[in-house]
Amino acid sequence: MNTSELLHTIAKDRVSGMRTIDSYQLKPTVIRVTSAAMSIDLKNDMWILNTRALSATITELELASSDNIFTATPEEYDFMDEFRYQVFTDYIDIKTTAENFQPYRLEFVKIIPHRNPQSGD
């Protein structure tokens, strides 16, 4: 399964249990992490971690949301297959452990839900 198929499978699994959602859109998003601890408000979206590799300057990365906590070192992340595609909901708290912090990028794919217009009944 290629990455695009995997991302759509993850999105469909997350959206399938939502009664008022009839479809979704995937949108690539890049975040620049500029401090060792920062938070991102995801509003009503869900984000899938889609970074190819973690920066070598990081000792450990922790991403936490209302329904998920994900921790990895760059070495651990390199050996992860589908497990690296973690989904985060509501917010993401990013904690970076590094000897000398340097800004880096994280790539995500937003799952943007589209509400069913008849859900107001």
Annotation keywords:
single chain, 121 residues, mainly beta, six-stranded antiparallel β-sheet, 2 helices, 15% helix
Written description of the protein model:
This protein is mainly beta and 121 residues long. 15% of the residues lie in helices and 50% in strands. Strands 1-6-2-5-3-4 form a six-stranded antiparallel β-sheet. The longest helix has 13 residues, at 3-15. The model has no long low-confidence stretch (mean pLDDT 84).
- As a percent range, the share of strand residues is over 45%
In terms of structural class, how would the helical and strand content be classed? mainly beta
**Uncertain ranges:** none
Largest sheet: 6 strands, antiparallel
User: How far do the termini sit from each other?
Assistant: 39 Å
Number of DSSP helical runs: 2
Name the helix and strand elements from N-terminus to C-terminus, one letter apiece.
HEEEEHEE
Using only CA atoms, what is the Rg? 15 Å
Helix content: 10-25%
Kindly report the spatial arrangement of strands forming the biggest sheet. Answer: 1-6-2-5-3-4
For the secondary structure, the number of strands is 6
Mean pLDDT: 84
Shape: globular
Q: Could you provide a short overview of the structure?
A:
This protein has two helices and six strands.
